[in-house]
Design a protein that fits this description.
about 180 residues, alpha/beta, seven-stranded mixed beta sheet, two-stranded antiparallel sheet, about 20% helix, globular
């Protein structure tokens, strides 16, 4: 069984899989199947990181340096919007990549999902993040039905650059 049986957009974004190592921000699961167990069955050395340490995730703060080395794939499927220090979490993403690594990211579209997290990167954020940090966007699309639209991004690291955080392309929503 696959955790993607009803999440075809996520599976499409992940495909083709690259390399043999993967870092997952968060500890995503669907229908009691963790992404970690799924990718390990496919032969990946899979590391998931979440503040709660559940489902085999390392209990780490995504705002602190992770120091886990680099990975062939880095996934952010609904994790970064919950992290209060956006520059720190995106720095960790880029520092976990080497030339040839692929980033797969799915984040809520600003204006939608206002009950879900605090930080929402705009469409422009990903284009600026790519341009400023050596990423090449392979796929980019918005999908879903309002108020649950998502930004899907797949980007490859083409060259190493000092981390630079786009300013002014992040929407903050205070959850009450």
């Amino acid at each position: 069984m696959s955790p993607f049986h009803n999440r075809l957009n996520e599976l499409r974004l992940l495909t083709p899989l690259v390399g043999k190592t993967m870092l997952e921000l968060g500890n995503k699961k669907n229908k009691d199947i963790t992404y970690k167990s799924y990718f390990e069955r496919l032969g990946f050395v899979h590391t998931s990181v979440d503040w709660n340490g559940l489902d085999g995730a390392l209990k780490l703060d995504l705002t602190k340096p992770l120091n886990l080395g680099t990975f062939d794939m880095v996934t952010n499927v609904g994790a970064t919007e919950h992290v209060h220090d956006q520059a720190a979490v995106w720095r960790n993403v880029l520092e976990a990549m080497h030339v040839g690594s692929v980033l797969v990211s799915m984040t809520p579209l600003p204006g939608d999902w206002t009950w879900h997290g605090n930080w929402y990167p705009s469409i422009h954020f990903f284009h600026r993040l790519a341009r400023m940090n050596g990423l090449y966007i392979e796929r980019f699309y918005v999908d879903g039905v309002e108020p649950r639209r998502l930004i899907y991004v797949r980007a490859a690291l083409r060259y190493l650059a000092p981390f630079d955080m786009p300013v002014g392309n992040m929407h903050y929503n205070e959850i009450k």
